[in-house]
Structures are given as structure tokens and as C-alpha cells.
Amino acid sequence: MKKLILYLLPLVMLFVACATTEEARQRKAVQRALVAQRIDQQIKDMRFRIYVDMMHPTGYPVRHLTSNYYFEVKGDTVISYLPYMGRAYNVPYGGGKALNFEGKLLGSEVRKERDDRYLMVLDVSSEEDQYRYVIDTFDNGSSTIYVYARERESISFSGKMETEDK
What secondary structure letter does DSSP report for 128? Predict the structure, then answer.
């Protein structure tokens, strides 16, 4: 009897372990689907916030950011709280506000590139410059923001779209 239990015990433990991993896999799949649905809805509503953690300036090394920099869209309003590093061609004395402003959305184009990816092109104007933000967002929330300005060198950022209610 003891030998039978010794042989069956590892087998039972193996089945329990496999069942738990399958359950965990299913939970993760449901979680991913909920996040993708939330991001899809935020983009359709044009109400989202992307927190950036890396800055990719043109001609400079990549920088990791420690502060809470973000880019937010609320309907037709854009709030840009992003750092800038690069060449400026024609800016106010002292450097101006750069990418720290609140402005009106002049135009937008949103298209779903694949099942798991959105591409957004947003045109915004501030007191100092006109900007084009090209945002590449995946269904897990990871995003890349490319910023093109008339009076400054282009720059890009990477981060994650917020998926929880505030």
C-alpha cells in the first residue's frame, strides 16, 4: 500500500501543478483581453494618458526618465508634459515651454494597423510651435510617441498607456 501511495503521490502532484498553470494562463489571457478592450475604448473615445519612461532624442543617447512625464488627450484638448532635448531653430528667449503645454487638437487620424496595434496622428498647436504627434500603441498599452515640430528637432518617447480609472 505504501509503495502504491509513493508512486501515485508524484503523479497527483503533477496533475495539480498542470491544472494550476493552465488556470493561471487562462487568468492572464482574460486580463490581457480586458486591458486590450480598455485601450481600444480609450482610443475610440479620444481620452487617454500615456506615461513615458524613456526619451529618445535625435543625435543623443537614450535617457531613462524618473519623473512622471505624460502625454494626455481629453477629447479635443491635448496636454503635453514631456521633457525636450535637442536642437531648437527658432524659439523664445530662454528656450520657451517646449513640450510642456496644453493645446487644442487641430486634426487627428486614428487607424487600426493590426488586431493588436493602433496608429494615431495628432496635429496640435501651442503658443510657440505646431506639433505632429505620431503615436504607436499596442493592445498591452505599450506606446511610442514620435514628436515632430516646426521649430525643433524631432524626438520620441516610449511608455505605457494608463488603463485604470482615475
Answer: S
Looking at the chain, list the stretches that DSSP marks H as alpha helix, in order from N- to C-terminal side.
2-45
Rounded Cα distance between 5 and 90, Å, is: 81
Helices (H) and strands (E) in the chain, counts: 1, 8
Coil, strand, or helix at residue 45?
Answer: helix
78 close to 72: Cβ distance less than 8 angstroms:
yes
| Predicted model pTM | 0.81
Map grid coordinates 487638437 to a residue.
Answer: 105
Per-residue pLDDT of the chain (166 residues; tens, 9 = 90+): 666 666 666 766 666 666 566 777 888 888 888 888 888 888 888 899 999 999 999 888 999 998 899 999 998 899 999 998 888 787 777 667 888 899 898 988 888 877 788 999 999 988 888 999 999 999 888 999 999 998 889 999 999 998 775 4
105 touches 73 (CB < 8 A): yes
CB neighbours of 79 closer than 8 A, spacing ≥ 6? 70, 71, 72, 73, 101, 102
